[in-house]
Structures are given as C-alpha cells and as structure tokens.
Amino acid sequence: MRIVQKYGGTSVGSVERIRKTAKIIQGELERGNQVAVVVSAMSGETNRLLALANEISESPTSRELDALVATGEQVSAALLAMELQNLGIKAYSFNGAQAGMKTDGRFVRARITDVKSDHLIEHLERFEVPVVTGFQGVDELGNITTLGRGGSDTSAVALAIAVKADVCDIYTDVDGIYTTDPRIVPKAQKMDQISFEEMLEFASLGAKVLQTRSVELAMRYNMPIHLRSSFDLVPGTMVTIEDEKMERATISGVAYNRDEAKITIMEIPDHPGIASNVFGPVAEAGINVDVIVQNVSEEGHTDITFTVPRSDYAPTMKIMAGLTEELGASNFKGDDTVAKVSVIGVGMRSHAGVAQKMFQVLATEGVNIQMITTSEIKITVVIEEKYVELAVRALHAAFGLDKESNTI
Amino acid sequence: MRIVQKYGGTSVGSVERIRKTAKIIQGELERGNQVAVVVSAMSGETNRLLALANEISESPTSRELDALVATGEQVSAALLAMELQNLGIKAYSFNGAQAGMKTDGRFVRARITDVKSDHLIEHLERFEVPVVTGFQGVDELGNITTLGRGGSDTSAVALAIAVKADVCDIYTDVDGIYTTDPRIVPKAQKMDQISFEEMLEFASLGAKVLQTRSVELAMRYNMPIHLRSSFDLVPGTMVTIEDEKMERATISGVAYNRDEAKITIMEIPDHPGIASNVFGPVAEAGINVDVIVQNVSEEGHTDITFTVPRSDYAPTMKIMAGLTEELGASNFKGDDTVAKVSVIGVGMRSHAGVAQKMFQVLATEGVNIQMITTSEIKITVVIEEKYVELAVRALHAAFGLDKESNTI
C-alpha cells in the first residue's frame, strides 16, 4: 500500500511526540507500505509567529503573514525527518515550494491548483519517506501562500491524490467520528465507516476533526480518508464513498452546533428581489448566513428569519437596524440563545418518515422547533439552546444509535 | 545610488530593533536611493533551532539542519517587510530560493554559485524594498542550503554584485574597523577606509566583523563594503580597492589573536615528504594549521614548529604523540599560552624596513619572538600570550597610529 499520513500540531508538538510519530511511520514501513508524511507546525508555533506579526503591525499584509507562518511547518518537517533518520529511515523534508504544491495567489486562504510531485513518487518507490509541510504552497509567481487554518488536511489529501496513494491517514487527537458528542451521550459510538457526503455534513455542522475542503477534495477524487488517533493505534473512522453496507442504518449520527444566532425581519413588503436586499448588505460585511426561512406572504408582506454565527450577531443586528426602515419592514428582532441540531445519514434516501420521526421525538420531549431546513441526507432544526442536550440524547436513542441498542 | 544593506541578528533581534532598522531604510529611500536589504535571523533564533535539532539527534543530517535553520531568516525578513509596510514603503520578503540565491550542494557550508535576481532589480527600480534572507540559498536540485556562520555578509555582497549596487552597507554593532583593539589601546582610531587586501588580513586574524568570504567576493568584483553601526548612523569604515590615499601610512593597524597554541616536533629525519607526513594526519582530523616554521636541517634532522587554534591543541598533541615514534623524531612539545600579533598595511609594499622596525620595537620591550611569518602586506609574530597588550600598545604607538600622533 502507498499511504499519505498527516500529523497535526500535537503529534509534532514536542521532541517526545515527534519520536512517537516517527515510530508510527516506522511501523507502517515495516508492514511493507510506502509512506509520505504531511505535517502541521508544532502546536503553539503558528500562534507564536502570529503574535510576533501582531506586535509589528495591527494589519500585516497577507503576503508577509504567509511567508512568516509557513516557517512553522518547515521546522516540524525538518525535525521529523531528522528523527526518522535516527531510526535508520531515509527521510527528506520538503516545504510547499519543494513539494510542488501549487496554489492560486490568494494569500492566507489559498487553494491548491496543482501538485507537481513526481519527484516524491521516486522517493516512495525506494521506500524513502518524504516529509512535506502542510498548510502551504507557492503561487505561480513563486510567492509563499497558506491555505488557512486546518489547511494541512487538504494538503495531505491533495498529496495523496497526486502520488496515487491508496489511502490518506489523518492522525489527530481523537480516534474517529462518533455518532454524536460523547460528552452529551456517553453511549455514542465510534463509526467504522462514513460516506464523504455524511462527513461533509458533520464537518459543516462544526465537527472540527476534518477541514471541509479536504473532504470535498477527497470525494471528488475518491481518495479514502482514514481518520485515526496518534495516541492509540486502533482503527479509526474510514471516510469513503457510500457503499451498500452503509444502507442499513437510517441515520448515521446526530450533530449539533451552539454557535448560532437567529434574526427575524418582520412584515417586509414582498416583491421580487427582497431577499437580495436583505442579504446583500450582510454578505458584504463578510457574514455567512446559514438557515433561511421565509414565511408565506400575507397581504403583500412577509417575514424573513435567518441564522448567523453567534459572533456575527451584533454586527448583523446593526445592519438590520439600518435596513428595517429602508426596506419598509415593520420591525426586526434577534435571539442569540438558539442552537442547531441535525440528524445525518445517507440511509435517509431509502427510508421514508425520518423527518416526521424527528419532529415527533422532539415534540414528545417538549422541544419547540423554531426553524427547519433539510438536505437529501440531513435534517436540521433550530431550537432554544437550553434544549440541546435533551434533543441530542432523545434523537440518538430514538434512531437506534445508543451502544446497547446496536449490540442487541 | 543603489544600495544593498545587510543587518545582523541584533538589528532584527526584537520588534523594537526591527522598527529602528526600518527607520534607517526609510531614511535611505528618502535620500532618493534604491535599497535592497539582506537580513540575518533574529539574534538567538539560530541557536534555538539548533538546540531543537540537537534534542532530536546528536548528529542530524546537514540537509535537514539547513532546512531547519533557514526558517530563522525567513521569519526576520517577513517581520521587517511588515514594518516597512507600516511606514508606507512597498516591501517584499524573499527567501533564498525566491531571491534566486543559487549555491552548490554542500549543506551547512554551501557557496553561492549564481544569483538570479532580475526580478529584484524591477522592485528596486520602482523604489520598492526587497528584503532577502541572508545565509541561505538553494542548490540545483532545489534543496535548501546554508552558507555557514556569518554567511549573511556573503549573501549581501553577492546580491549587491547581482543587482549592480553602488555599495554594500553592512550594518553591525560596531561602527567600523579600528587600527587595533580599543580595549587594549584607547588611542586606537576608526579607519575611514581600508583596502580589501588589508580587510582580508584583519578578518583572517580574528577581527570578527566581516566574514572572510564576503571580503574575497567583494574584492573580486570590486564591490565597496561600508561597514557601519546600526546604533549610530555616522560613517563607518569603507572597504574598497587600494587607492593612492592609502599609501601615506606605513601600516594600517595592529591585530592580535590569543586563540593560538604552538607545537614542535623535534629532530625528525629530514627527507622529502616529511611535512606531509606530519601535517597529513592533522588535516585529516579537520584541524587547521596556521603558522609553520621548519628549521634548517642539521645532520639530517630538522625541527618543525606550527600553530593551531587553541581548541585543537589537545587533539593535535595526541596526534603528535602517535607520530613521533612513527616518524623517528626524538620528541615533541607544546605550548598553549602563545598568541599572534600582526602589523598590517598595504603601505608596507612601498616602505622598507617595516619588519626590522617591528622586531626592534618588540626587542626594546623585552618581548621574545618565537615564530615569524610574513605576507606582502602583513608581518605576524608568535609571542608569549602575557606580552600581547604590551606588544600591541608598543607597535600601535611606534607606527604612528595613536590618535594624538595623527592629529599633529
């Protein structure tokens, strides 16, 4: 097998951790596999560098920020290569430019456009280990770029695709994806397998284990991702294309996100283009609107309700204060104590009545549903934040995800 | 004027120092000059990185060492570029690869082979400031290389030559080259000007202000170096080609070096190849032999005396212990309390009797000369270390270098 492994900041966060990480790589080589490695900066290093930049300037240019923070991964890559050499393994560090990680020129949030890594394949074929800096690349002018927080996952998947790896192992400090947050539901189970589509829903709902873009990329090229723990070398969760095996469960998991605020603008005169009048100014302020619900028009007026990240609540309310009169609406109101709860599963496609069952479970528990939005493999409701744990526990049990119910 | 400025680690050692350095650059731009900058790593940073490497491995590979420590300059270059931008100056950082600093593939001690910096000239012509990492480059395979300690001086001179600068300003924490060490001779004077040849002698005698290779390179391409202080913006010492003005003084300065040890191997059978039999094993141990004196052969035997850096005294003595019997010598002895004192000056070429005057001055002071070696512009004697201050003061005065004697 040819494997690309990605290690996050904690896995290279100290000399001791680097030694453990090198041992994992050694183990994989001893099993006869070819291994390329992608590393993040040592934990804390990126923040140290950003603090230096902020001491210099309140708003440093993004080109120089990227040149600065990209050094973090170069340090960890060199150190890990040294430790692999200690173990008698031929290893070589490569920074973004050296690894052929080509990106567009959007500093701080660049996107990978191409990976020119034929020279890395030569190393792999000799069972040597290229250690590549994650999170970074070069644009076509040779400027150093970074991919934004969590970008190392995307680097790893892109490299795996480029070197035609069989799997991309993402080592992290959790051992996989769970059916829901075990802190809320102790009976939550680790999933052996999850589809790319489901993983995307989990990721977009705040499961911070994988960067959304890395999953999108893996899905497009059908590159399996093995999400696993660097502390405990048991199998984690395999993120792959949907297969028959996955069909058996109606839903795969229950996700939630407390980072939500809800805003309603009332009795707006309803005419074509009203939505863009409301959301244009919000988008211009760089605020991402999530769930949107528009009531049926009554007497030429309508209400529009939408959610934003809680940190954007205050600026959004300010924008609404200005818009209400301008648009001829009667009033606006907000609530920053709401949360989202979702049930996710490719099984929904072949099982009718999932939404109805979800609403019924919540009604039984006395949880009022404020907003509803659905996709083919997900149903999301907005509820009062105080009901989150109750709702998650009830849904997890009702859909047969509790550990006991599965072992029966 | 087009100027390449080089700033050492202390000049970029803190946010405060970076701000001061940016101000100096701004001043130069305001005088209508074009400025490119070469920076070292923040002081302490290279050692911090080396300590990390040594924690990982007792003997890390030099390829990875270079990849590791090269990040130091990338950090300081990015931070200085940010600060220049704060001042409204268009500035861009470039690492070794980006600046086109091509080197051979000898990691840790690479030599610059070419500088492909046409893109930097475009910036200069627009009065924008390229901030280039010193000390590093890339070999033809794209591997990151470093030039060895002090290599940033060489980077700066090479860049100055490549962009056809008028002068290479080396900013440091001293304000120039002195006729001798002011700690020994308070009447020592700063030299306004010194020839490349003289600077080379000063550098090789332990004046640590300029890396020898940078002076050699500047001499070859006739690139004037202005050695000056970043703390006090007065003119420093200009290192240039020899001119008529320099002819007036017989000697330019008095140098000394305490880092010396002397070893004698006695009554070796004198036959062709004896020197290589003695010095071959020393060179193989990586020890640099400096002054060598071989006595006139008497009855088929000769004595060979030579000096080595004091830190190499013990290993050299060990080698001699092994060689003495092997070569049929009668004995060997060593002395690690010797020092070198030199008088240097292009004026020697046109002034006879400098050596004789030097020996006379030392004799008058009761200083016994143990070894003598000369070049066209330098006379060096090895003496007992305890006489160093006495010898330096006497020679400085005798050759008319004391401040008063010159102002008469």
TrEMBL record, chains A, B:
Presence of keyword rRNA-binding: no
Keywords: Amino-acid biosynthesis, ATP-binding, Kinase, Lysine biosynthesis, Nucleotide-binding, Transferase
EC number: 2.7.2.4
A single MF term (Gene Ontology): ATP binding
GO CC terms, sorted: cytosol
Domain ACT: 263-346
Binding-site list for ATP: 6-9, 172-173, 178, 183, 208-209
Superkingdom assignment: Bacteria
Swiss-Prot/TrEMBL catalytic activity: L-aspartate + ATP = 4-phospho-L-aspartate + ADP
UniProt xrefs under InterPro entries: AceGlu_kinase-like_sf, ACT-like_dom_sf, ACT_Aspartokinase, ACT_dom, AKii-LysC-BS, Asp/Glu/Uridylate_kinase, Asp_kin_monofn, Asp_kinase
Protein's pathway: Amino-acid biosynthesis; L-threonine biosynthesis; L-threonine from L-aspartate: step 1/5; Amino-acid biosynthesis; L-lysine biosynthesis via DAP pathway; (S)-tetrahydrodipicolinate from L-aspartate: step 1/4; Amino-acid biosynthesis; L-methionine biosynthesis via de novo pathway; L-homoserine from L-aspartate: step 1/3
GO process terms (BP): homoserine biosynthetic process; lysine biosynthetic process via diaminopimelate; threonine biosynthetic process
Sites where the protein binds substrate: 46, 73
Entry annotated with the keyword Kinase: yes
Gene3D superfamilies, per the entry: Acetylglutamate kinase-like, VC0802-like
Family in the record: Belongs to the aspartokinase family.
UniProt protein name: Aspartokinase
Source organism per UniProt: Mariprofundus aestuarium
